[in-house]
C-alpha cells in the first residue's frame, strides 16, 4: 500500500494540470499514489489523464459536484496512510512530500503538517511574496480568529485516520470549506509546519475568493457551528474572527476595485473588534484605501505592480 495518497480535484484545469502532475512525479519521496478526480470536466481532462503511463496515477471520473465532493471522492478511494491535497493548478517543490512525511513519522501526536507557500501569478511567475505560518500545536484559537494557519489548500499532509474521526469536507459550503475542515481537525489534533516554502500557489483574477458576500456567509455558518459548545471564556474569540474576516474581505474588495465595499468591510472589522485599529494589518489597509482614493484604481494598480516587481527582484529563488 502506498504511504501517501495525493488527491487532485480537477475541473477544466487542463491548462495547468500537466505541470502540476509533473511536480508530483518529481518528488524525492516516491511511495505515493495520485488520484486525479475529474469533476465533470469538458476540456478533455479524463482523456489526457488516461494516457499517463506512471502506474501510480489513477483517474476517477464523476459528474460535476464541486471541489469538496471531488476531494471526498478521492479521500474515500485513497489507500495511503497519509492524505496530501493538491489543487490542479498549484505546484510542489521536489522535497515537499519527503519533508512532510518525515515530520509526521517523527511526531506521532501531529494530525496535520503544513508548509510555507510561494505566490505565483496566472502565468506561473512568482509575485515575490511568500506566505508563512508559524502556528503549531493547538491552533484552534488561531483558526476561529481567521488567522493564517494552513497557507493554502495544497500545503497540508494529513493522517488518513483524522478524516475517519472528524468526517469529510462539507459539500454544502460553497466557500471556505477548507477553513471548516481545518477547524474541525484542530479541535481534535495538533498541527505542525515545515518552515520552508514548498508549494507554489497560483492566483487567478477571477478566483471564487473574490465573492465577498458568499465568503462572509460561509464564514458565519462555520464560526457559529464552531462556537456551539465552547466554554463561555472563549466566546470573545468569535468577534475577533468576524473582525479579521471583514478585514480580509476589505482586501478582496480592493482587488475587485470596489472602493465603497472595501470601506464597508474595513468599518465592519473595527465594529467587531475596535482594538484591531492598533494592528499593522489595519494600518496597512488604511494606507492602501487612502492611496486608492487619492490615486484612483489604475495608478494604485501600477504602484502595487511596482512593489511586486521589487519583491521578485530581492526574493531568493527556491531550489
Automatic annotation (TrEMBL):
- Output the superkingdom of the source species: Bacteria
Which GO molecular function terms does the record list? transferase activity
Q: Which UniProt keywords apply?
A: Transferase
Q: Can you tell me which residues the record assigns to a coiled coil?
A: none
Q: Name one Pfam family in it.
A: Glycos_transf_2
Residue ranges constituting the Glycosyltransferase 2-like domain according to the UniProt record = 5-118
Query: What parts of the sequence cross the membrane?
Result: none
This one is known as Glycosyltransferase
Q: Which organism is this entry from? A: Hassallia byssoidea VB512170
